Amino acid sequence: MSNITRDQFDVLVVGGGPAGLAAATCAAECGRHVGVVDDNPALGGQIWRGEVGKAASEAVDWYARLRAAGANVLCGARVFHQPEPEVLLAEAPDGPLELKYKKLILATGARERFLPFPGWTLPNVMGAGGLQALVKSGLPIAGKRVVVAGSGPLLLAVAAYLRQHGAEIPIICEQASWGSLVGFSLALLRQPQKVRQGFALRKQLAGISFAASSWPVSARGERAVEEVVISQSGKNKTVPCDYLACGFHLVPNSELAALLGCRLRDDLVQVDDYQQTSVAGIFCAGEPTGIGGLELSLVEGRIAGLAAGGSAPAAKPLFAEREKLRKFARVLDRTFSLRAELRGLPLPETIVCRCEDVTCSRLAQHTSWRAAKLQTRCGMGPCQARVCGPATGFLFGWAQDSIRPPIFPTRFENLITFSPEAERSEITGGRG
Questions:
Q1: Reduced to 3 states, what is the DSSP secondary structure of residue 192?
Q2: What is the mean pLDDT of residues 373-402?
Q3: Less crowded by CB within 10 Å, the N or C end of the chain?
Q4: What is the pLDDT of residues 279-301, one digit of tens each?
C-alpha cells in the first residue's frame, strides 16, 4: 500500500499556470502558508510552458516572487477527489497526497476543443496546442508541412511558434468569417498590448496563406496523415501535409469545480467580485470562469489570491482592469463561436468518442448525454469525456449532468489507500 504524504495549507491553489501563479504569489505575500499543486513537471501551464526557467520573462518574474514569498510547489501531482470538505486527494509520482486547506483557489485552466471529422483519428492529426507542447518538449518539426486549422487566436500563436522552429505552414484555416474577424480587430484597438502582439504575429506569419470561413473536411493517409481536404469559402481544396494541427478554440477545465459543488453556467464557474464561487472559501480564477487570455487570468488570479489571503480591500483597485478585460473576452467568445456547418462534418461511421470507439451514428440514436453514456459507454474512457463531452455538446446539444470521482484516471492502489477500510487498518495496525 502506498505511503500517504499529508500537508496542510492556509491557501491551496490547484493549477500552476498564469492565474495560479498570480493567485499563489499574492496569497503568500499576504503572509499565508500557501501550496500550489499542478500536474505538469514544472509551473507555467500551457501558455508559459518552458518559460519559467528562462531569463527576462513575465513568467520568471512571477516565479521569483512566488519563491521569495515561501510558497510550497507540488508539481507532477494531479488532484482526483475530494473525500470530505477542505481535503483534496492527489496522485503524485512518489505516492498519494492528502492536502488540507482553509481556503482553496481553482486555477485549472482550459483545454482545446476538438470536433470530429473523417480522418481526425489518424496519427499526426492533433490539437494545435498539443503539437506546440510536443515541439516545446523536443519533437523535431523543422521541414515538416503543418496545416493549422480550427478557430481562435491560439491558431496564429501556434503557427508562429512552429514556423519559428522550422515548420512549413502551407495555410491557416479559421472557421470564423472575415466579418467577425474585422470586428475582432477593431476591438483589439482598445487593448494596446494586444495590438502589439497582433503586429508581432503578423510579422512572424508574413507570407503564409490565411483563409477565413475555412475548416478541415477530412484528413487522409495510410499510416499517418498525408493530406487534408479543407473547405474554403464553400469550395473544397486538398493540401498535402505531414501534420494537421487542429483546435476549435478552448473549453474550461471546470470538472473539479463541479465536483466540489460550485455553481456553473454553460460550463463556466460562477464567481463574485472577489472571485469566490458559490461555495464559501473556494475561489476560482482564469479560464474556468471564462476564456479571456493571459492578462485576464493574471488579474483574476491576483484578486483571488488577495481575497483568499485575507487582503480583500487590496483587490478592489483591480476590478476596473478586470472588467475591461472581460469585455474583450466577450468579444472573443462572439468572434470565435462555432458555425452550424461544422455539425455536418462527421459521417455516420466517424468515431466521436475515441476512448470507447463510439461512432456518430450510434450516438445519434439517443436524446441525452446520460442515455448515450449508459448505452454506448461514451465518455467513460480514460479522458473522462474531456474530448467527446464538448464535441457531443456542440453536435447534439447535450449537457453533461454529473461529475463523479475520480475526475482523472487514478492508480487503483491510491483509491485503496484512501478507502475507509484502509484508514481503519492503519489505526488498528491491520487487526480489523
A1: helix
A2: 92
A3: C
A4: 999 999 999 999 999 999 999 99
Residue for grid cell 472573443: 332
SS3 23: helix
DSSP label at residue 77: -
Average pLDDT, the chain: 91
H/E segment holding residue 244: strand 243-248
Beta bridge partners of 151: 248
Q: How many CA atoms lie within 13 A of 361 on its CB side?
A: 4
What is the C-alpha to C-alpha distance for residues 105 and 377, in angstroms, rounded to an integer? 32
pLDDT of residue 428: 45
Task: Specify the pLDDT at position 56.
Answer: 52
Q: Is residue 140 scored above 50 in pLDDT? A: yes
Question: How deeply is 106 buried, as exposed, middle or buried, from its count of CB atoms within 10 A (0-12, 13-18, 19+)?
Answer: buried
**pLDDT, average across residues 358-362:** 97
Q: Are 176 and 221 in contact (CB under 8 A)?
A: no
Task: Check residue 54 and give its pLDDT.
Answer: 60
Secondary structure element (H or E) that encloses residue 390, with its range: helix 388-396
Q: Which helix (H) or strand (E) holds 126?
A: strand 125-126
Burial (CB count <10 Å: 0-12, 13-18, 19+), residue 310: middle
What's the mean pLDDT in 412-427?
Answer: 61
> DSSP readout, 224-235?
S--EEEEEETTE
Give the ranges where 72-189 is alpha helix by DSSP (H). Answer: 128-136, 154-164, 178-188
CA dist., res. 332 & res. 327, Å (int): 9
Distance CA 361, CA 82 (A): 36
HSE-up (13 A, CA, CB side) for residue 67: 9
**Dihedral sign computed on CA atoms, order 189, 193, 199, 204:** negative
